[in-house]
Structure formats: structure tokens, C-alpha cells
Design brief:
Elements: H1 10-16, H2 19-31, E1 34-35, H3 36-43, H4 47-59, E2 63-66, E3 76-79, H5 96-120, H6 126-131, H7 143-164
Antiparallel strand pairs: 1-3, 2-3
Helix pairs in contact: 1-5, 2-3, 2-4, 3-4
Organism: Flexivirga aerilata
InterPro entries: WH-like_DNA-bd_sf (IPR036388), WH_DNA-bd_sf (IPR036390)
Protein name: Winged helix-turn-helix transcriptional regulator
Amino acid sequence: MTAETPLPTAEILRTLAVPARWRAYEALRNFGSMRGRDVAKLVKVSEGSMLAHLRELERIGFVTSTGDASKSRAQVWSAVAGGVRLMEYDRTEDYAVEADAWLKVRLEAQADVLQDWVTVAGNWPRDWQSAAEMYDSFLHLTRDELVELGNELHELMDRWHNAHSAPGPGTKPVAVSTNAVPYPHSYDPPE
């Protein structure tokens, strides 16, 4: 992956806000280049449908294909590095509605990964089962502390990503997601 995905626009985010497309992009990022039929199996859609989704992802610069385009089933698809970069997203951008839709698809995909793990964990070796981690915490932070926490989480994940982004002996793809948001519901206890 040498190119980089384009910066988000309303059209790009609208295209990515289709669950099968986002999952296809994630599959190619996580597992590397593969044929459309293999992506379709991972995403659990038909091969024909997946090929249409992959062409849309290619149109917006998120995947590339190699091979004879007239023989689409033989093409090998690859993710373009970068992903979606919504830095300092404050919902005042022209694409706020589309960004919200894509973020919901992304969160659903993250939840699906965790639910799938719970379903299959018993089939994995015990050492992998015990190594898996699910953790949450509710904190009381100021806005500045939330920014600091977010920066520290990014630094930690960047360090691990830079050291472990390629497959190696004994490795498995591991999904790590972090979310640090103000709790969406408020409650003021009676005095």
C-alpha cells in the first residue's frame, strides 16, 4: 500500500456508509490483497454484489485492483492506506450528515467483530482466549483531560501499529478499537 486514501468528502463518506463496503475495505486492510470472492466470503455477501462494492471503493480511491478488468472475478483487490481521516471533526463540515452515517457503520462493524469473537472464542486455543481483552471504564474528565487521554491512546496505538502492522510468524490479526466520548445521557442526582 503506497498510495493514500483521499481526504473525506460528502460523496466519499456516503459511499463508505454502506456496511458491506466498509467491511470490505477493513477486510483488505486486515488480511491483505485478495480476490473479490474471498472478500465476499469474509463480508458474507454474494460475489457479484461484492464486486460492485469493490468497484465503488476503487472509484473513490480506497482500493486498487490488478489483473484483467474484463475478467472481474480474477482481479485481485488491495486496500489503499490511510482510511478515513476525520481529524478535529466538529460537525460543522459540509459533510457532517454523511460523516455521522459513516461513523455509525464503522461502530456497527466494530461491534460485529466483538460479537463474532464472543461466538467463536471457544474454538480458539486457551492461550489466545485468555490473551483477548475487553475493557471499559467510565471516567469523570474535563474537556482538556479527554483531549489528553485521546492523545495518549493515539500515541499508544500508533506505537503498536508501527511495530506490528505486518503479519509475522505466530501472529493473528487483532482488532483494537478505542472510543472516548462524553457519556451521551446526563443525570443530575438529587441533592
